[in-house]
Design goal:
The structure holds 2 protein chains of 2 kinds.
Chain A: H1 9-22, H2 43-62, H3 73-79, H4 87-93
Helix pairs in contact in A: 1-2
Chain B: H1 3-18, H2 30-34, H3 48-52, H4 59-67, H5 73-91, E1 94-97, H6 99-110, E2 123-127, H7 154-161, E3 165-170, H8 207-214, E4 220-225, H9 231-236, E5 240-243, E6 263-268, H10 271-281, H11 300-303, E7 307-308, E8 314-325, H12 326-330, H13 334-348, E9 351-358, H14 364-368, H15 376-380, H16 384-389, H17 398-404, H18 409-429, E10 436-439, H19 443-448, E11 452-459, E12 465-472, H20 477-489, H21 520-525
Parallel strand pairs in B: 2-3, 2-4, 8-9, 8-10
Antiparallel strand pairs in B: 1-3, 4-6, 5-6, 5-11, 7-8, 10-12, 11-12
The chains are: A mainly alpha, B alpha/beta.
Amino acid sequence: MSEPQQPTDEQLDTYIRARLALAGVDLNQLPESSDPTTGAPTRSQALDSLRTFVKSTPPAIANWAPSASGAWAAAYAQQASPPLEYPSITEAWTGTVGGR
Amino acid sequence: MSREVNRRAFLARSTAIAAGVTLAAQAVPASAATRKPTVTVPDVDVREAARRDPAEATLAEAAVLMRRGRLKAVDLVQAHLDRINKYDATYQAFAVVVGEQALAAAGNADRGEGKRGPLSGIPLCIKDNYFTNGIATRANSFIFADFVPDEDATAVARLKAAGGIVLGKGQMGPLATTRATTPNGTITTVNAWTPNNASTDPGGSSTGPACAVAARMATSSIGTQTGGSITGPSNQQNLTGLKPTMGRTSIHGVIPLSFTRDHSGPLARDAMDAALMLAVLAGPDPKDPRTLGLPAVPDLVRSATPVVSSGGKVRLRRATRIGVPTDYLGSASGDVLSIRKTFLDKLAGVSGATLVDVTYPDDWALLTGTFNAIRLSERTEPFRHWLRADPTAFGVSLLTWLQGLMLSGDEWITGQRAKNHLLREVLDGVLSSCDVLLQTGPVPFDILGLPEIAFPIGFDSARVPVGAILGGGPYEEDRLLEVAAAYQAVTDWHLRRPTDPAAAKLRSLTAEPNRPRITAEEAAATSS
């Protein structure tokens, strides 16, 4: 499996601005310098924070899969741990709580 | 979803509708009353301190005093208002106080008019992210600065239907993210135990409700928890906080932070008060489908009643294996380590309690650490309108809302898959060798929606409270209450109250100008 080249900070900044713009959010609405009245971050603070986040968190999440082994590990991992939005509620709705 | 699931949800809805509650009606579902025991305040022994000062009384003590004709609701409410007037300029626990309204409700209670129930005449602090009919609900955010709901959140409606009196709205971290600050990050609420030192962590984001109860400015309170916001302030301010299982309480009418993790629950003076509050709050709500089709609410008041033999020996209501993870002592040092050791010894001495060493699975840190970020997309989605219109309206709390836009849909799904994986590791692994599990942080059980109870276990050398968090299996709040109640029957940490600060002249609804501020980066790093 080939490893894609990691994006540069400049590329990440472009990506972040583009993603925000697609969602309708304009970083230019943030102040250029510190604004004690609102306490909102400056544009550069926001960009720095998002760059750090984008470098670390999404890749760590995307790299995880339920463990499986063998040549078809990826296929078995697909079957493992179906996504559950509300795990504790699912325990109740499937009748598996109350017996402990 | 299976047919059984659909059938359960359908039956729950049908019960509510048949009982005369429409889906659009103000939510105090009659179905709740059909699915849980009648809530009655037991005849607890009333301490001399509570007889002398109504503001000292626990909820149960106050209810008993009123039932015996020894206390009027008006006097109880006035006692708390007096303390608010005297001390809240320092504490800044309240965002709004509705004193006249509360006194009028108390007068009605004394005359036997209005709503009657287990909370009759009890003054309550409501975290400011719960809708309150006709009372500003700002969540300490510029976004909601002018918001006055025309309905009560289900939780508030239930408290009022049980006779509870809203005394005011509690300060909170902006949009339920951090310790309580103004929208621009200026600290408002202090820890009730160090009122003159704003740097002491008071716990967040239900900071105001915690401070109000700890400082005897409200008999009890409700908060919300997405990442420790009930258990944290409870531990920091010597209270008993109960974060129930997801779905046990409705979050309809709560300003959202993360839909899959927002929980509603009490911050109270002891296990009995927490049980009484949760017993009123719990049960199905047609307006919140997460509450439907779930196990019946157990008799929480019974669970919080200590079992004492005729010889005075306390025992657990049920034999309970208490899991102690390797980092419970391993991650602690100094005062906290010493307090935790003493706590474990005391707990082990309660008849019926067995301490069990447990080990986390290998991927625990990843799935409860980095994967905690999955919640961020959920806060972004319901706030898109304001993110587009004016991101500065998020003030100091903006960054995590922007971070939520940086997670892709497939990564969010991976997060949900990881929840299921983690759930099995907890229920089939860790909790297979124990019934309840001591926590070193609230996040793992917040992710899974499992119940947690926080209670006091001592004080550090700076006289700041230290607490424990105990987690349990799904819908096993009763087991958590049993353990906390037994521990509180053999200790008195929960009965200790902070010393009053010097009375300030005027109460202000804004932060004192000399209080420190937190930055946007700090807010992101500590966000619920």
